[in-house]
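Q: Sequence in, structure out?
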Amino acid sequence: MLSNSLSASWSTEPVGRVAAPLREQVIAALRQAILDFQLTPGQRLVERELIESLGVSRTTVREAIRELASEGLVTVVPQRGAIVSAPSLDDAIDLYEVRASLESLVVQRFVERASQDQVRRLGETVDEFERVAHASTEVREVLASKNQFYVVLIEGAASGALQQLLEGIQARVQVLRATSLAESGRSVEVVGELRAIVAAIAERDAPRASALTAEHIRTAARTALASLQAVPAPQD
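A: Exactly. Output:
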């Protein structure tokens, strides 16, 4: 059984006092722990344990939890406190549809704005993703490698607004993204899908690249949502 204790799943040092405001450091530390699956969906975030492990005040912890709740990464449940969020089936369906539309727009902007060097680098991230997918069985490593594709994509799209929106959506479906990539054979399919997108981008064919991107996301959604539908609903 998974322990609900923070100390059993997440080892961290007290945050520093110089680089950024304490609140921002705490938010960043908790956000990264959630995205790295050190803190897992459904896990309680106990104020006392956070205060002790991070070495900050109760006020700072509460402010951080409020911010993460606004991002959809944390849910505050009456009588239980804060827990790491897990999207419901209905939320996941909507989030994936938004993601399909949003990533299609990001790809369109990349086609319009990216340099040839950025197109080349985008292709190289797919090569690296293929290498990692074949070499590693650790889904976090595979997901981290795929995220490099988005790093270059966002850079070439050159839109701060789209970057903020996309990162928020991807964070909220992080656990489902990992579930999809962990499905047998899915990583191999993803390599082919990404190569087709990059080929269309290299030809500066924005409509085709956008359409392929939307189909890629919807294929991932079908895999992830199937696993979510198979999980029994929690009982009160």
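The mean pLDDT is 88.
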